[in-house]
Design brief:
Elements lengths: L15 H8 L2 H15 L21 H6 L1 H9 L14 H7 L3 H8 L1
Length: 110
């Protein structure tokens, strides 16, 4: 499995927070912060938009670092991703991602 596939199967290389971080793109940070603040009804600032991927060493967004229930579960279970979890098929938390993103499920099954 590629290193930049998140625990949930999403591709971190396609995430705007990751792209803003690796390209040091302040305009993308500002755009992403505004969008995520609106979507989550939360105060998200451009300086919060820094992430190197949820399974990678280094900086992560606050959500990915400490709020993501999928990441917390995977770390607790000691799995590489949800794809190697025996409970993947019946996990309702993971289904919140995979039902809206078939590529995430495909990534986990590869």
């Amino acid at each position: 499995m590629r290193d930049m596939i998140g625990y949930c199967g999403l591709d971190c290389e396609k995430c705007d927070a990751y792209l803003a971080t690796i390209n040091d793109d302040q305009a993308l940070r500002e755009k992403t912060a505004k969008l995520w603040a609106e979507l989550n009804n939360a105060p998200i600032l451009p300086e919060n938009i820094n992430c190197l991927g949820c399974r990678a060493e280094g900086v992560k967004t606050v959500f990915c670092d400490s709020l993501c229930d999928i990441r917390k579960c995977a770390l607790k279970r000691g799995v590489e991703t949800c794809g190697s979890c025996k409970d993947m098929e019946k996990c309702q938390t993971l289904a919140e991602i995979t039902l809206n993103n078939p590529d995430a499920l495909k990534n986990l099954k590869e």
